[in-house]
Amino acid sequence: MFRNPEVSRLLAISPHLDDAALSFGAGVAEAAQDGVKVTVYTVFAGTAPPPYSPVAEEMHEVWGLSPEDDAPLYRRKEDAAALGHLGVDHRHGRFLDSIYRRSPDGRWLTDRVVGPTQDERRPGIDPDLVAEIRDDIKSVIEEIDPTLVVTCAAVGGNRDHVTARNAALFAARDKNVPIRLWEDLPYALFGKARAVELPDGFGLGSPDFAPVGAEVRTRKFEAVAKYPSQLGMLDGPERNLFARLEEYSRKTSPQHEYGETTWPVVH
Ligand SMILES: [Zn+2]
């Protein structure tokens, strides 16, 4: 798809600091190599004021930080290094990861850790938050003037992924920019159904598997390794993230190649 000369500026909307690299790192790296100007805007990259929820403090420790550390600041630095390695620009949104958010009644939104291997309880999606993110994405679109927007399909139903995806769908439609959705990794590796439910008025086209060469695949894996805070959860002896990414891709690919899957969005 990136050999398409009509794509000259690409805006990738990443829910968290690492999703674009994990799910679409090869896609953005290859686009950048082909001369496309690529910007990755990460929605939930904001720093939360303390106090933190018990889940957030637990996550900080899992990430190798102190409970009271400004983890998003640390993660933004990881992101800048990873995306720089892929040859693309980065922008960091102001929104707070769900582990830092409260419900309208003041309680913490998340009372347990939900990683890619766990099932999210039916996440309630906050329409006001979707609307705020949609406005910010529209400002980024006005500035960057992308010829294509790509974001996650929210395979696995993570609350932040669904929220960011819906905001991106609405913003791209408002701005009349075509949009594609990437398959969420590593969610898809852990047997998450590929079935995704889009808001009314949006549908998924046919999946498009885009193979890349070994050099681009290696660059993606090197970029993912630049998020050490996240690798403790995603990788390690039991998880073998990189081997599983390879294996999953070669199973998906008709030619047993490494690549990533995206879908066009139809109205
Ligand atoms: Zn994520």
UniProtKB/TrEMBL annotation:
InterPro entries, A to Z: GlcNAc_PI_deacetylase-related (IPR003737), LmbE-like_dom_sf (IPR024078)
UniProt keyword annotations, A-Z: Zinc
UniProt-listed Pfam families: PIG-L
Alphabetical GO biological process terms: glycoside metabolic process
Top-rank taxon, per record: Bacteria
GO molecular function terms noted in the UniProt entry: hydrolase activity, acting on carbon-nitrogen (but not peptide) bonds, in linear amides
Name by which UniProt lists this protein: PIG-L family deacetylase
